[in-house]
Amino acid sequence: EQTPSSSKDTLEPVLNALGDWLIQKRQLDQGLLENIQAILVPEQRALWPSFSQRLYREKHMSRGRLSGESVDLFLIMRDCNLSPVAESTIADSLDEYALALDIAMRNRDSILRGNPKKLFDNILSGNDKRDASLSDDLIKARIEVRDLNDRYTEIVCSQLSPIDSEDFRARSLKRGYTRIYRRTPAQRLFQQAAGNPAYATEVTAQIRALELSYNQELSAINFQLLGLTRKHEPEAQLHREQAGQIRKAGGTPSALEDPTRAIYKKREALGKEYIEMLRALLSADQFLELDGSRRWVPRSE
Asked: What CA–CA distance (Å, rounded) separates 60 from 50?
């Protein structure tokens, strides 16, 4: 029996067999779905495309890496508890969305999977460099999925009543861009204070006026953060890919400036400013009764 002369000789038959198996597995998966379709009655066959899209969407949606890439507008619709009339109004748009998203996600996942045979050949040859065009293609595919979610959020919102539209958009943005749209400390404090029945009517009115003013300024900052995030995140993803290759080659990658950092600091300063105004409206005991308020009281006090 011949002993393998190197680790390459040991690995080669294993990787070749694994590559063949992965290709066969994909073919078997596809064949299984085709066999299921063949036994369906006409009514079931008509429903198959939407079922297949939903199955794929629910299984692969979590592969998103960009903000907004993993939003499922069907789940947003479910959480909004829309009336049957509202759901019927947006049904055609969601059908279009499902088809376009299915195509975009399959394209993205195809790039992610790559060609296993080529990957294993690179391992055997010692070539650990990733094709630069592959990273570019993957980022573009991710952007396409994200943009579809953002685009159809606006299309659906344009067809709903103002109240439903606001709720749908807020839920979609909060799920897709959590860091930007999660509640801020100032919002939590204002919400508690504005809902406290123990305060005098005029104090509550002043609190609500401050809350409204803060939310308006916050919305403008969040909109700015949304635009910067959508532009910066793909650049940051690509930069990380390139930086890894540079480090492997023994180099030192350059730093990439994050344009959102200064805006987040501005938003934090805005929150502190409004919390101070809220604090000035309330007595010391009233302010301290608010959950999470102690962090905003100076140690000297």
From this structure: 15
Distances in whole angstroms, Cα of residue 208 to Cα of each of 143, 219, 280, 281:
39, 16, 14, 12
Distance CA 53, CA 100 (A): 10
Structure tokens at 233: 């995140």
Q: State which H helix or E strand residue 21 sits in.
A: helix 7-38
Of 37-51, 116-130, 172-186, 287-301, the one with minimum mean pLDDT is 116-130
Region 149-154 average pLDDT: 98
Mean pLDDT along residues 19-33: 65
**How is residue 256 written in tokens?**
């990439």
Compute the CA torsion angle 179, 185, 190, 192 (nearest 10 deg): 110
Label residue 49 left, alpha or beta by phi (over 0 means left) and psi (-120 to 50 means alpha). Answer: alpha
pLDDT level of residue 52 (50, 70, 90 thresholds): confident
d(CA 160, CA 168): 9
Lowest mean pLDDT across 22-31, 161-170, 221-230, 256-265: 22-31
SS3 116: helix
d(CA 183, CA 111): 36
Structure tokens at 166: 């606001």
Q: Which two tokens stand for residue 206?
A: 């002043």
